Amino acid sequence: MIQIASSPVTKFSSNVFVRTLLPPLAFFGIALANFFVFVVVPSERVMGAVQRIFYFHVGSAVATYAMIGLMLLAAVCYLATRLRDWDLLLHASESVAFLLCTAVLLTGMIWGHSAWNTWWRWEPRLVSFLVLWLILFSALILRSLTGSVGGKERNFNSVLAILAAVNVPIVIFSVKLLDHSEQLHPQVIAERGLESPWYVFTLLLAILSLSLLAVWMVSLKLNNLILREELLLLQDQRRS
Amino acid sequence: MITPDTHWDLFLGYTAFWICLGWFVFTLIREQRSLRREMDELKTELSRMTTQTERRRVSP
Lengths: 240, 60
Prior knowledge:
The structure holds 2 protein chains of 2 kinds.
Chain A: H1 8-13, H2 16-40, H3 53-81, H4 84-115, H5 124-146, H6 151-173, H7 197-239
Helix pairs in contact in A: 2-7, 3-4, 3-6, 3-7, 4-5, 4-7, 5-6
Chain B: H1 6-58
């Protein structure tokens, strides 16, 4: 019925595991992670209760990077093959990456307000992450303005996705650009700040469950985009 | 530092986080339902149109 019926992208969106097993698995993981965050893990000595934001702040940051990895794959495949479905996957992963990136910024600002007594500081990690958010935002704005109907717009979106992927290592290593005394953003994992095994377990659980949730959201968005394409084809058929 | 705002900030952070994600998932599911409904209506209309065309062809 439609040209994208048996591509790897549509196979992913209609996969039985993704459609039926992933949502309960992700929700169970998130519920369990919440239980560990609020009941099991002890409060951090200096920051107190607000430190518990950390698990979902870092979890969503890792899930954002995973989504940007998916964006890079979709962008490279689209530029190599020019198949519309890779662009659909790019659109879906872009939306989820933007959402998670916004969540990271919001939770980081709220945590920073409590821990540093300021909502924002112009330091490398925060600025590079803001740049990442702006790249994703501009890609979505471009899509909403042009509808990504033309090949040129799709190419431009793919280039923006590659740019976002290039920015990820810059975000990760940005904390090493300045001396530790000149910036407030902590390097918890690099400095082995997670001493209790419960901290590590809860963080890994939050990362895993948020990544599963992100993959499920991508499949939902992808299904919607494919349905929209099919709907447009049917509408054309009715007109003719 | 543990300030009186600590618990409020934690609550605010968590609420903001889950509102973002919950709103997105809710919107996607609602959009999918509406698209499927629209698609079913369109398919029914198309099949009705096809049947009418075939009837016209058959009848003299």
